[in-house]
Design goal:
Rossmann fold, D-amino Acid Aminotransferase, Chain A, domain 1, 3 domains, globular, 17 strands, four-stranded parallel sheet
């Protein structure tokens, strides 16, 4: 079985590594061959809008998938006329535009922060008048890891926010006073079967995911998150792994964003679940039976951003599994690897996590 992967970052790399035991071969397409995915599978280089080159790359593949959310939709639509593309381009189209994403959540009954589209300066004035402050002005497209955002704490901050982001399609969102951040991942197969992972708790720093702990054992929140994700997946007839990030507000969940792909907050599943998100994504898009998603113990994941820890000291931490993405250049804000800790109890995990933090 051959899977053509558009994008060859660390997510693609982990897809390929999970596929080898199944006899699944992943091939990659990216602008550069010097990529994490290119180190573990064959890679074709080219621009993401080069349709003839993409078509030649995908020829002979059983399915096309992607590890990057900014793939041009026209490219995926063209490929979908030749070979199945999962997740569906329609889901990616919504995830690429924060206004479409929030509107879909609202239409499906999934709670979100109050929001309004902003194209002109007077739109921002009207949105702040209706929603109030504090809030966040965001670009509708191409924002990730905290990029393309301006916090507005009072009306006095409108000028600075507009100066930073004005001139492109924007969305204004009311600030959510949350106690925790959580995410739910699930794999949905070609026949509509759904396998949900346990909720995980996430910590972001500077807009980038820094830590994840799982499982979050809260039956009511788990059921609520599964209901919301199921509604989104059913809407698209979705195939593959889908992630939704939530704010926890008391006993409620407020949806922040969705990711139609394997997700950083699910890295703990590689060692911490019966079947990893990467393996289940491949199973789903290839029409294979989905694997069990139960947690094997208590897991934590730490992203290494900007630098990797000393390997000897890191591997001395109990229950630790190290993942170096093979990126040659270290720079601030760049994800270079992660480590997962899996131990039998939450207290043992948290002690090991505290030790790992001192290295990260």
């Amino acid at each position: 079985m051959r899977v053509a992967v558009i994008g060859a970052g660390q997510l693609g790399r982990m897809l390929a590594l999970s596929g080898y035991p199944l006899g699944v071969q992943c091939a990659f397409y990216d602008r550069s061959a010097d990529t994490p995915g290119g180190q573990v599978g064959p890679i074709t280089t080219g621009e993401f809008d080069d349709l003839p080159r993409l078509a030649a790359f995908a020829q002979g593949a059983d399915v096309v998938t992607f590890d990057w959310e900014n793939v041009p939709l026209a490219s995926l639509a063209a490929l979908a006329r030749r070979v199945p593309v999962y997740p569906q381009p329609a889901a990616l189209a919504v995830a690429q535009d924060r206004l479409l994403e929030k509107t879909l959540f609202r239409d499906l009954g999934v709670p979100t922060a109050p929001f309004a589209p902003v194209d002109l300066r007077q739109d921002l004035e009207a949105a702040v008048a209706r929603i109030g402050t504090p809030g966040i002005l965001k670009t509708r497209r191409f924002g990730y890891d905290g990029k393309g955002q301006a916090h507005i704490r009072s009306r006095a901050g409108l000028d600075a926010a507009w100066a930073a982001l004005g001139g492109e399609p924007l969305i204004y969102e009311g600030f959510v006073r949350f106690s925790r951040e959580a995410s739910l991942l699930a794999a949905r197969g070609r026949r509509g079967e759904l396998a949900c992972y346990p909720l995980s708790l996430n910590v972001h720093r500077g807009g980038i995911l820094a830590e994840t702990r799982a499982p979050l054992r809260h039956a009511a929140l788990q059921a609520l998150a599964e209901r919301h994700l199921r509604a989104v997946a059913r809407h698209f007839g979705y195939v593959g792994v889908l992630a939704i990030e939530f704010f926890v507000v008391g006993g409620r969940l407020i949806a922040n964003e969705m990711a139609p792909r394997v997700h950083n907050s699910g890295h703990w599943t590689i060692e911490g679940a019966v079947t990893s998100q990467f393996e289940n994504h491949l199973r789903a898009i290839l029409g294979l039976p989905l694997g069990a998603t139960a947690a094997r113990g208590h897991a934590a994941m730490v992203n290494f951003i900007g630098r990797l820890p000393d390997v000897r000291r890191a591997l001395a931490v109990p229950g630790l599994h190290l993942h170096d993405y093979g990126k040659r250049e270290a720079r601030p804000g760049r994800k270079l690897g992660h480590a997962t800790i899996v131990l039998p109890t939450a207290s043992a995990r948290d002690r090991a996590l505290a030790r790992l933090r001192r290295l990260a």
